[in-house]
Amino acid sequence: MKTRPNRICNRNTVYRKESGRNGITMNTRGLRSQLKDSVPVAGLCPQGAYGVQDSLRSGFTSVKNELLPSHPLELSEKNFQPNQDKMNFSTLRNIQGLHAPLKLQMEYRAARQIQRLPFLQSSNLALDTLRGNDESIGFEDILNDPTQSEMMGEPHMMVEYKLGLL
Amino acid sequence: MATLVMNQAPVGGFSFENCKRNAVLEGEANKVGCSMPAARKTGTTICGVVFKDGVVLGADTRATEGMIVADKNCSKIHYISPNIYCCGAGTAADTEMTTQIISSNLELHALSTGRLPRVATANRMLKQMLFRYQGYIGAALVLGGVDCNGPHLYSIYPHGSTDKLPYVTMGSGSLAAMAVFEDRYKPDMEEDEAKQLVRDAIAAGIFNDLGSGSNIDLSVITKGKVDYIRPHDEANKKGVRTGDYKYKRGTTGVLAKLVTPLNLELVEETVHTMDTS
To answer: Which of B5, B36, B98, B100 should we substitute to test contact with A (largest number of A Cβ atoms within 10 Å)?
Structure first.
């Protein structure tokens, strides 16, 4: 059976749906611009030791699952906070000069280091105050609250992973 | 229950884990010939008009789920702040949650500035949030209120574009309502005239659009006062039954009567206490 090759993006078409097997369609327009300089999608550089896919910890892999996001918003939502920060810092640099983003980024790094152990939820109060998130409510506070998560990381594994012993 | 090994801490917000599974399920369902259940929408008529001292917002009260009326009397005019109200069309859950989130954010903002919130602030917050989600949040809103700069009325589309106009309509019955507005709108109307105009516009939507129906809700916002009139007018009243199929006693004649008493004797009695710990 001849299968159509999956093309990621075609700049010149107006609106294009991609039809794979099983009648699954997905709108892949505009993906290339999002994939280009964002947080790298897993699978292209496997994280296990010796550069081989770590099946024990990240499960079985499939290139299609990792190259194409399952929802058009997935990539933009994952990178929303870093993109906002980048935009704010570059505006600040243009208005006030290089010192302003430098000092702010130093404060961000300091605030990010105040954390509990990896498997416990840290409140990130200083980081939230710096970003201004303590005065606003969004979907990340209502849906999927990490403090109410039903899964717990195994403490030993998570600490070893963080310390790089794994 | 076994604990899973996670590498990163979980984050809040939308989770896209099940998207692929849902796409596969939908593909399977389409092959067999069924379809996935539809979300509850408020196929709707909502509208607003600016009059001399303020803003009148109007909405119908029908919520549909595909071809079925899910709620005959739902409330589509949502509270945002004491001087700002918002009508919502589109997916019912999306409009509810969006207006509640913006209402909370506006309250926090007002506490921070110490002033009564402005309609333009609510408009900008809504528009930035809807654009962030690229239209996947299906909420089409009519936002109206009175602040220190006078009465304002905005319409906000699901993809994030907004319009600031003296009269707006949204929803599936928007064309019918807009026809009434275009015919009879005058700038600087009196309050009663404006209420009658909005009532007629919503009634046009109710009688000419399948997705709108039931009653008409109005909300009149002026400087310092909000009148939330629910229902203002019951356009579609459910009919009253005029006949009765019950037969009177004695309609059927009794020929003979036989009574057999049933003697039951108590064999055993036990008491089980409930474990309410």
So the answer is: B5
